[in-house]
Prior knowledge:
Elements: H1 6-22, H2 37-42, E1 47-51, H3 57-64, E2 68-73, H4 76-85, E3 90-93, E4 107-113, H5 121-134, E5 135-146, H6 166-172, E6 177-188, E7 191-201
Parallel strand pairs: 1-2, 1-4, 2-3, 4-5
Antiparallel strand pairs: 5-7, 6-7
Helix pairs in contact: 1-4
Amino acid sequence: MDIPNKNALDMWNEQYNQVNEKGLQYNEQESWLNSYLPILQQRGFKNILEIGCGSGNDTKLLASKGFSVTATDFSEVALSIVQTNMPNVQVLHHDTKNKFPYENSRFEVIIAGLSLHYFDENTLSGILNEIRRMLTDHCLFLLRLNSLNDEDAKKEHPIERYFYSVDSCRSLLKGWKEIALGEHAITYYEKKKIIIEGCFEKVGLN
């Protein structure tokens, strides 16, 4: 795996080492994916790709509901945590901006919860094309991005990140069928945060 930004990788590994040392406690009830479980189960989806799984709170929810989950992350420490706690989950150490090693239409659901706003719009557009390639027709992509209205949008960050609006998100996903898209206030790591959340269906010829 090509890791061009060693400093960012070191920071993520340090963060997840600290999480692990404090004693990891999963709270599946707090997962944002709970509201999407009915549609995933109703449609009979099984194969899910989670991009940027972190320490695996959402991953654990999905695995506990019987989905076949493949989880990726930039941090090998995060993946080690997931492997230890969820041995049935397949993991991949992967830099999201690079091509994924999966065939076309491999997954029925692809999820990216607050993992794609580390890329500028041009790079993110390429990632979305790759997500579209891996997703089966008429299946779902669920995402969360930093909102321009979040207080962190005006701050400097040790790891570069980008902030999006509902309109810019909609523009990036032009050609997808919009199921839901909106701005939400959430609590994330005990801090108030404003995010963009969306659910899109793959339609069209590719």
